[in-house]
Amino acid sequence: MVVQVQIHPIKNSSIFANFTKDIFNLKIFNELKSLLHFDTDLSIPETLKAILNFRKEIENADGIIICTSEYVFSMPSGLKNAIEWCVSMTLFTEKPLGIITLRHELMVEKDIANYR
After folding, report:
1. Are 29 and 66 in contact (CB under 8 A)?
2. What mean pLDDT is reported for the chain?
3. What does the buried/exposed string (b/e) look like for 83-110 if buried means 16 or more CB atoms within 10 Å of the residue's CB?
4. Of 4, 31, 77, 85, which has the fewest CB atoms closer than 10 Å, so is most exposed?
């Protein structure tokens, strides 16, 4: 399953899916906007259908790839929100996880200088 948080999700998911078509069977999830803001009162007893479906997709996946751009030196709020909906469960336990991030060129140069 690929969880996608990108400026051009359709274009980028098509490129990624095409590049990996002989390696992976991909299920692209680019509906983070459909997930209501996390609310502990709704997290277990009356979880909304969109959240249940998202959790089921993660549970059924052999692995997860998160594709996202950096936002204010961190992850976008929609991605953080999606992860929060899964915190009370063990959906990510022992599941392979990959993260593909996009950073501005100046930040990458700064990171490289810091690593040296």
Report:
1. no
2. 75
3. eebbeeeebeeeeeeeeeeeeeeeeeee
4. 77
